[in-house]
Amino acid sequence: SICKGESIALTAIGAATYTWTGLTGNSNTQIVSPTTTTTYTVTGIGTNGCSATTPATITITVVPEIVFTLKYIEICKGDKGILDAGSGPNYSYSWNTGATSQTINVDTAGTYSVTISNGVCSKTFTATVGYIATPQIKEITYKDPFLTIIVQNNGNVPIEYSIDGGVTWQASNTFQVLKNTKYSIRVRNRGATCDTTAEYYTFFMANVITPNSDGSNDVIDFSEISKYGNFEGGIFDRYGKEVFRPTTKTPIWDGKYIGRPLPTGTYWYKLQWEDKIIKKPVQLSGWILLKNRD
């Protein structure tokens, strides 16, 4: 017996020359590669030219060739993946890990091999396990009311995005968001269990403040943005005098200067901090209308 796709040598002995049915040549050896079970016949011819009265026959049984399903897979670091060698009649398995099952669980990147036998022949196959290269967040931009996540895809599978810590995911990288809200950003290749994370605060500088204790626009809150690296800023009157300097200790402006309400009017602000993602300075400036009770 041989496996389909293999060759075998047929050798006859006891005569001077040979006549093979269905094969060319008259030597004592023939190399054959049957694709189905086949019977071969050979007749020996002596040195006197006489042929044997009974030809010799041999049947070569061809069993199906060994097939496999082993393929390259990617896993997240710390997770497990499955390598499947495939099933077939009378298959037995011998992995380079020592396992003898059709499938094995793997948690380490590398090359794995398995020898499959069917009782007639055997073949060795290999597959590589790699780690998933998670997407890289290149930049996050916010322009009220939209937040956009710009990434570099390091794999071949499409990316999906989440801004609620992975509770919900979407294929679009743009979200409609709320002002002055912290979002837990996560990006991953679709279906993967590992991802890349970032925190982002949608800082929005209001251009009006009305400190009348009605719960609307009473203050401007710099609490979150003042924690950013290299943060500095100030609010100035029309003469350029600084009337408020936000810091982590004093992050909230209520329209007062040294404890006293400032007059109604237009004030100016300048802010600067370092973007956490791109590590470059962000500058923001503009005007604020203060409506105080004069």
Report what the structure shows.
By secondary structure, the protein is mostly beta strands. It has no helices and 28 strands. The protein folds into four domains: 2-63, no CATH class; 73-131, no CATH class; 136-201; 208-290, Immunoglobulin-like (Sandwich), CATH 2.60.40. It is 0% helix and 46% strand. The strands form ten sheets. Strands 20-28-27-22-23 form a five-stranded mixed β-sheet, with no helix packed on it. A four-stranded mixed β-sheet has the order 8-13-12-10, with no helix packed on it. A three-stranded antiparallel β-sheet has the order 3-5-6, with no helix packed on it.
Strand order of the largest sheet: 20-28-27-22-23
CATH architecture of the largest domain: Sandwich
Task: Please write the CATH class name of the largest domain.
Answer: Mainly Beta
State the total count of DSSP E strands: 28
Strand content: over 45%
- Tell me the domain tally: 4
SSE string, helix = H, strand = E?
EEEEEEEEEEEEEEEEEEEEEEEEEEEE
Helical fraction equals under 10%
SSE layout and pairing:
Blueprint lengths: L1 E2 L4 E4 L5 E4 L8 E4 L5 E8 L10 E5 L1 E2 L9 E3 L5 E4 L7 E4 L7 E4 L3 E8 L4 E10 L4 E8 L2 E7 L6 E4 L11 E3 L5 E8 L6 E6 L6 E2 L10 E2 L10 E5 L5 E3 L7 E2 L2 E2 L2 E2 L3 E10 L6 E10 L4
Parallel strand pairs: 1-7, 8-13, 20-28
Antiparallel strand pairs: 2-4, 3-5, 5-6, 9-11, 10-12, 12-13, 14-15, 15-17, 16-18, 18-19, 21-24, 22-23, 22-27, 25-26, 27-28
